[in-house]
Amino acid sequence: MTKTDGTQLLESLELKEYERTALDQLLRLGRTTAPNLAEASGIPKARVYGVLESLGDEGFIEIIPGRPKEYQPKAPEEILQRAKANRRQVYEAYCREIDSVSETFLNHYRPLYETATSEISPTEELFRVVNVGEPSLRETREIYRDTDTELDITTKSFEYLVDVELTLRETIDRGVDVSVLFVHPSHLTDENSRIQAEIVDRIDAQFPKVAYRFSEQRLPWRGTLADPSLEYETGTAILLVEEKDIPLHMRQAAVTDNEAFVAGMSRYFSLIWEHDSVELSDR
Length: 283
Fold this sequence. Notes:
Blueprint: H1 3-9, H2 17-29, E1 32-33, H3 34-41, H4 45-58, E2 61-64, E3 70-73, H5 76-118, H6 122-126, E4 128-131, H7 134-146, E5 150-155, H8 161-173, E6 177-183, H9 190-206, E7 211-215, E8 221-226, E9 236-241, E10 252-256, H10 259-275, E11 277-278
Parallel strand pairs: 5-6, 6-7
Antiparallel strand pairs: 1-3, 2-3, 4-10, 5-8, 7-11, 8-9, 9-10
């Protein structure tokens, strides 16, 4: 091992450069005097005594009285144990310092924190926001997985079916009732209408248990409602408001676990489903 290698190993003890050099040389030389160590290590004689005193204070070496004083390194195992003990003592002292001011700190900041958090608006508590794209798809899949009884999907063409297909299949296999409310193709572009037709064919072929209808009016929002309850006992939703002039990748979706809000959106879904939508054969 070279001198450089040894001092690099000693960096983990958080010693200063001269301290690392001195300890490295002492471990090589064994018991020696300060002048001998200064000559072997290149540490200036004016500095070497202070360096050795510091190593003694850390407990890494023994200082042997005499004329001249001699300095003996501790065994490597003892050095490591002492380093851990030193760090533990520093940590315990820090904890005692924190404990000594904790009551004052809490009395000062707790009321300020409680006042600030009490000013969170009802809207902020009602929703959390995720970016449209993979983050919103991840939330959608999570909602599918957690659904127990009912899943209501509102969409233009359900073009993201390929991204949630596996999770949707598992959800249906668990006995969850799935309903999809499409926008009527007369309100879609030719491209979206083509995509919708392909998705409908795919649902017919692969998901025969899924019920679907087509809203005769444009829908102001898209998203998923899970386990709505008019008793406000359960309910989760992810919703995206229609924004024609904003690219999809720049939009955001709102996620909520507010059971009352989900129940209200479920009533909206049910009214459109029952009174303002048609089946495929009616198109």
